[in-house]
Amino acid sequence: MVAVVGRVAVVTGGRRGLGAALVDELLARGARKVYSTARSVYIDDRPEVVTAELEVRSAESVAALAEVAADAEIVFNNAGVLLPAALLTGDLEDATETFDVNVFGSLRVARAFAPILAANSGGALVNIHSVLSWLAGSGAYGASKAAAWSVTNSLRLELAPQNTQVVGVHAGFIDTDMVSAITRPKASPVEIAARIVDGLEAGDTEVLADDVTVTVKAALSGPVEHLTFSAIS
Fold first, then answer.
1. pLDDT digit string (tens) for 79-93?
2. Does the pTM of the predicted model rise above 0.90?
3. DSSP string over 40-60
4. How many CA atoms does the CB half-sphere of 145 hold within 13 Å?
5. How far apart are CA 148 and CA 12, in angstroms?
6. Could you tell me the sign of the dihedral formed by the alpha carbons of 161, 165, 171, 177, in that order?
7. CA–CA separation, 203 vs 40, rounded Å?
8. Which residue has the higher pLDDT, 59 or 188?
9. What pLDDT, on a 0 to 100 scale, did the predictor assign at position 3?
10. Which domains does the chain have, with CATH numbers?
């Protein structure tokens, strides 16, 4: 388990939505410093927040962040993209970008920060997935989150020797700009951020951040044809 108080954290995609809520939650729990990233430069006036430009599709950009944030002890892989389209009829470039950001982007961050976490007593890596990791019908987004879940589970094994806690987070729809056009019940980013940090500090390897996620995870042992997007309506 990794306590937040006095720690240095990195939150990718920290400018808005769940990322911004995570930055706020970390500071509220006593984090000493939080590096918060976005695709473009922005300002946060709080002295504990260091903003940084990051493009997770670029190995050079990720490496530059790792150089700046060499004191990081907790890394939240939160940056993601939602380009809704069917796998068969949607733009293949959109599907490729979805995987490059949601899967390979988070892997680039993990690879860059693994030696930093090792040097700083292990720390923690927290990867944000989705309940859609387990449900059909959400196109490349769900497929990318399923792949990210698998990557996280393998990273947990690879990072165990250096004492890095690896946490996989699953949640349903969160009330952010990313899903503003989707008319389904949504959880508050503040509530989800609190549950994520609760899980981190409790030493959890997986955080099921809301009731719908708990229900869907329990259904994984049933018929695969029941695991569809409509299951969370």
1. 999 998 899 999 999
2. yes
3. S------TTEEEEE--TT-HH
4. 25
5. 15
6. negative
7. 33
8. 59
9. 93
10. 8-232 (3.40.50.720)
User: Is pLDDT larger for residue 163 or for residue 224?
Assistant: 163
CA distance 87 to 79: 22
Q: What is the pLDDT of residue 185?
A: 63
- The per-residue pLDDT for 182 is 57
Percent of the chain topping pLDDT 90: 80
Residues 112/146/52/60 CA torsion (nearest 10 deg): 40
Q: What six digits make up the tokens of 60?
A: 């050079």
CB 167 within 8 A of CB 75: no
The DSSP secondary structure of 158-204, one letter per residue, reads HHGGGT-EEEEEE-S-BSSGGGTT--S--B-HHHHHHHHHHHHHHT-
